[in-house]
Amino acid sequence: MARPTSAFRCTECGWTTVKWAGRCAECQQWGTVIDVAEQTGIVRSLQSIAPSASRAARPIAEVQTEDAAHRATGIGEFDRVLGGGIVAGAAILLSGEPGVGKSTLLLEVAARVAATGRRVLYVSAEESTAQVRLRAGRTGALHDELYLAAETDLATILGQIDRVAPELLVVDSVQTVSSSLSDGLPGQPSQVREVASTLIRVAKERQLPVLLVGHVTKDGTIAGPRLLEHLVDVVCQFEGDRQTALRFVRALKNRFGPTDEVGCFEMTGDGIAEVPDPSGLFLSRSRNAVSGTCVTVALEGRRALPVEVQALVVTTRAPQPRRVVNGVDPSRVAMIIAVLERRAGLKQLGEHDVYVSTVGGVRLAEPGADLAIAVAIASAMRDRAVPHELAAFGEISLAGEVRPVTSARQRGSEARRLGYTMILDMEAGTVHAAVERAMIASASSRERERDAAF
């Protein structure tokens, strides 16, 4: 028999080594390598166990799916992201930056579900019951079927589940709950893994859907072991800027529905409100056409949203002109400026400061906004206002060509539905032709306004 040897394993990725290391050589995480007693040279065998009649394997066509149907929460935007609602026994993880409104959203979800007559247990491991009750009173989330508990011990939470027998469980948050069966402080990988696996096992055994709140690290990833995202069925990310009231919920993983849906919400003084049609949130309210503005149609999941891009070009005497952007990629703006100088005849851009921003705090990361940025910069440079009826979307190459973008037909249909009768897209051919068409449309618009004044 071989002598037992000591091995060390990373709790994040499973990397093993014969020596302890403070940092995993595979995933580069600190403090995740632990000592694991391991017997080598011994072949172990397991006794087979006969499954019960209810758990015996059956042909897949005979498996019933009624228990896995989606049940609506009452919040249409949240149901859209989940694929139609919450599935019985599903484990859903919602992550987001501190203060973005995760607890407010889940409290609203719990209240809507409780209003339908289903019993809900809301476990707060970060706030006291009085604090949650105060927020519930402000947002109107008071219902008799909504039960509230402030617990940080996993065993006590399981006792609360046995006593209340809920149909929906909300735990806020999984990083602040600890188990006596695992060593370490709350939030450490071993504790998060033990708490999450226990709650998910309870969810599967009782067909109890569980909503878990997850903290994020400074680089935006979910805190805790990577195994947490593999264990749960749905991973949602709650995004938003503290300077704006707009919030987005995106599905990063969904075993019961699509992952390209986006839910839109707005933070108000009375809580969080869903925005079924956010078409006008990213457009300015100016009635008169102003130079340096152009509307594009961006895709947020399956939604096509009109977004206004604004540009300002100012003469400068500095040796290095400034390039200030907000809501768009700085590298793409620098590339578009270079293409406009070389391919569209705007030779004087190198002597001007260029400022580019979006309306409403939305961020445009897709290349489909390139053409709208180029038209806005050209409009500001020539001081000609683009008409309100014009919208542009398309990717610009270094050769000055306008390339097609994904879901171009959907973008065009949404633009026409909102009243944009002039569409600039890949049919323009080149960025120079697109800019000239926009300038011609600008001149025609001024003539129509002058004729209407007379």
Task: Write a short abstract of this structure.
It is built from ten helices and 22 strands. The chain has 454 residues and is an alpha/beta fold.
Give an overview of the whole structure:
It contains ten helices and 22 strands. α7 packs across α8 and α8 crosses α10. With 454 residues, it is α/β, with parallel strands linked by helices. Mean pLDDT is 86; it is low at 38-43. It folds into three domains: 5-38; 69-274, P-loop containing nucleotide triphosphate hydrolases (Rossmann fold, 3-Layer(aba) Sandwich), CATH 3.40.50; 293-453, Ribosomal Protein S5, domain 2, CATH 3.30.230.10. This is DNA repair protein RadA. Plays a role in repairing double-strand DNA breaks, probably involving stabilizing or processing branched DNA or blocked replication forks. Keywords: ATP-binding, DNA damage, DNA repair, DNA-binding, Hydrolase, Metal-binding, Nucleotide-binding, Stress response, Zinc, Zinc-finger. It comes from Agromyces bauzanensis.
Strand content: 15-25%
Number of domains: 3
Structural class: alpha/beta
Helix content: 25-40%
